[in-house]
């Protein structure tokens, strides 16, 4: 069976990719299956650059097809921040709650109309026999001035999805996965999976 390595140790992400690649009879492995592989430093200035760095490094190490994603929150009123620093926006050693607090503080004076934002996901697929391909996906929304909901993780409690009338943290996991930026990116990746010759 042909296999693809997903450059993540996140089991939830791995499950989403398994659903996508199983249609093509491909076995999905993750970095959990490669405990000796050191963390790859994300030195890119864009989501795409970081995804490419990770995918190409894993593809080269394992001589296999590899897929990596980089994603985060992009807020228009903050000139695109937190962006590629979404996971560590409040600083090293801080957590999701600290990151949310920093965003809420910075957005305090921003009026309703200017609170537009999106979750953004870049996916890169790399391999020994083809050129690296990147695709992206977004989920549009607005930043609230308080937390709502207890599902999800990261910035979900303050990210309001107007089409649903709820925050990401108020949606069921199934519905969130249908709407998510990663789901949109994976949909955009699918035509490339069909075209690429996985040999």
UniProtKB/TrEMBL annotation:
Catalytic activity from the UniProt record: dITP + H2O = dIMP + diphosphate + H(+); ITP + H2O = IMP + diphosphate + H(+); XTP + H2O = XMP + diphosphate + H(+)
Coiled-coil segments on the chain, per record: none
Cofactor: Mg(2+)
Span of the signal peptide: none
Keywords from the UniProt entry: Hydrolase, Magnesium, Metal-binding, Nucleotide metabolism, Nucleotide-binding
Residues annotated for Mg(2+) binding in this entry: 41, 70
Family: Belongs to the HAM1 NTPase family.
Subunit and interaction comment: Homodimer.
PANTHER family (UniProt xref): INOSINE TRIPHOSPHATE PYROPHOSPHATASE, INOSINE TRIPHOSPHATE PYROPHOSPHATASE/HAM1 PROTEIN
UniProt-recorded name of the protein: dITP/XTP pyrophosphatase
């Amino acid at each position: 069976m042909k296999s693809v390595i997903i450059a993540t140790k996140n089991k939830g992400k791995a499950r989403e990719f398994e659903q996508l690649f199983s249609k093509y009879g491909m076995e999905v492995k993750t970095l959990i299956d490669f405990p000796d592989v050191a963390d790859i430093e994300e030195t890119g200035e864009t989501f795409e650059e970081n995804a490419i760095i990770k995918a190409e490094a894993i593809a080269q190490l394992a001589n296999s097809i590899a897929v990596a994603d980089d994603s985060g929150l992009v807020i228009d009123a903050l000139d695109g921040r937190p962006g590629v620093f979404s996971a560590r926006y409040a600083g090293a050693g801080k957590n999701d709650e600290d990151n949310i607090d920093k965003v809420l503080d910075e957005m305090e004076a921003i009026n309703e109309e200017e609170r537009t934002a999106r979750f953004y996901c870049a996916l890169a697929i790399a391999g020994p026999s083809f050129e690296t391909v990147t695709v992206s996906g977004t989920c549009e929304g607005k930043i609230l001035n308080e937390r709502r909901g207890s599902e999800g993780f990261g910035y979900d409690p303050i990210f309001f999805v107007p089409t649903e009338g709820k925050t990401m943290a108020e949606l069921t996991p199934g519905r969130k996965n249908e709407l998510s930026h990663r789901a949109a990116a994976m949909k955009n990746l699918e035509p490339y999976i069909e075209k690429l010759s996985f040999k």
